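Why does this matter for the project? Reviewers at the last site visit asked to see concrete outputs rather than summary tables. In response, this paragraph embeds two records directly. Each consists of the residue sequence and, immediately after it, the corresponding structure tokens. Nothing has been edited or filtered.
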Amino acid sequence: MIAVLLAMVAVPVGVSASSTTAERLTTAAEEYRAEHERRPAVLLEPAVGKVTAANGWVPATATWTVGFGPPREGTVYAPVGSRPGDTVEVWMTRSGEPVAPPPRPRDITGRAVVQGVFTALGVMAAAVVAHLLVCLLLDRIRMLQWGGEWSTVEPRWSDRRP
């Protein structure tokens, strides 16, 4: 009975976990956007090679400016096929160091769904384990009771006397 109730609770708990995860990730992404800024970077080399970023972009050398300082040069991520001279928007710290972009809404949704599914599965697994443990305990108690009753009946059936 308890296992059935826990299994019925699994879906709402999973939905709640998914919703909470989405809210927290959205807040974290907004804070990240507030602490970092997008700046243009001009590619110095073509963006070719093995895709290493989740969004299908590859590392390439580029140059950018920070305030009125001298141009900086470093590695940024650009779409595959970009050519030297192309401008790409890059997320940077206030000091001008390239950083990963904040998660996209679909990434947040995906992570939240995965969190909800695994939470629901965890609750269901806990229900199954709890059910099995209760069954084992009850079987053990039944076997002990059966053994006690058998010790009183068995001598009469086998003609053995204590």
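We now turn to the second protein, recorded in exactly the same manner.
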Amino acid sequence: MRIGILGGSFDPPHIGHLLVAQDALDELALDRLLIVPAAQQPLKGGNQTPAAHRLAMVQTCFGGIPRIEVDPIEIDRGGLSFMVDTVDALRRRWPSATLHLLVGDDVVSTLPRWGDVNRLLSMVQLVVLHRADRGHDVAALAVPLESVGAATARRLATRRIDVSSTEIRARVRDGRSIRGFVPDSVETYIATTGLYLENSRESSAVEGPARA
């Protein structure tokens, strides 16, 4: 079995995440792709949208898409989310599976700061996602990859989508439309809950099994 793992804050999930997921399913011939929202990213500050909100958005964004599953493993575990712990648990769940860990080329430089990254990379096939129009940047990834023993990482070209979660949060905060940036279901969720408006991160809460 070939399983992909796409982790992140997903704050919020957007159309670029959907297209990357589909590219990975197709190009890597995955049997399933796990979308894993973090409880709390270790390399980001503490001012993150509550995990329950992010999980709900990911579920409405990816729900019902064949071969894609939203896995709340990191949110259920709580605390800081270290991918090595997640992969270790997934390896026990599927001992004979080939695990493909998908990371964007923009985070490759942070790999040396990941928890127990050498053990992590011994358990997965690392797949670096890079925009197809930025082939000249691929060579620059070699140094940080080699520094963590990932010289054999696979590169997966994805289509160009100029959208980011940071931009979406800013647009909501400024009262601008996010139509086309996120699926309609995510847009509705953000509007209904008042996420990303001033002070909403401190005051928002939802019911459910997830822990912030």
